[in-house]
Specification:
It contains 5 helices and 7 strands. By secondary structure, the protein is an alpha+beta fold. This is Cytidine deaminase. Its EC number is 3.5.4.5.
């Protein structure tokens, strides 16, 4: 694996350019991203590593907030970073936490957020010791609502009788 690391002022603001993809390395980056989590209220650290279609990897961690509903999950953090840099097509996301006995699973909001960018990309859910299960976004959110639903015969409210 050939990797070029582009660092910005803070270590958590990194973007990796990869020329080949290693699932093991991808999961390792998610575990590393977890170390930057800001979780003083939930005490639940989560990291994510998102692989774009061109091989760029964006990492994210969860960020708690005293106003609980304003916190952001690691998955949405990584996706937002990628989108803000012009990426819209993703191959995979790896998610890591400190959970020992079950795999970390994205919350419902993150599943819908991932679905916004397609159904056919991989989600690696890990345990603390590194084992994982792989699912597709479609598996995590079956019968979902997405962008194409807004394009298929939706009548704007102002035009309804």
């Amino acid at each position: 694996v050939i990797i070029t690391l582009v660092r910005q002022p803070h270590p958590s603001h990194s973007c990796l350019q990869t020329h080949t993809h290693s699932d093991t390395h991808h999961r390792h980056l998610a575990m590393e991203a977890k170390t930057f989590a800001y979780s003083p209220y939930s005490n639940f650290r989560v990291g994510a590593a998102l692989l774009t279609s061109d091989g760029t990897v964006f990492t994210g961690c969860n960020v708690d907030n005293a106003c609980y509903n304003l916190g952001i999950c690691a998955e949405r953090n990584a996706i937002s970073k990628a989108v803000s840099e012009g990426h819209r097509k993703f191959k995979a996301i790896a998610i890591a936490s400190d959970m020992e006995y079950q795999y970390i699973s994205p919350c419902g909001g993150c599943r819908q957020f991932m679905r916004e960018f397609g159904l056919d990309w991989e989600v690696y859910m890990t345990k603390l010791e590194g084992s994982f299960v792989k699912r597709m976004v479609e598996d995590l959110l079956p019968e979902s609502f997405g962008p194409q639903n807004l394009k298929e015969g939706v009548i704007p409210v102002k035009n309804r009788n």
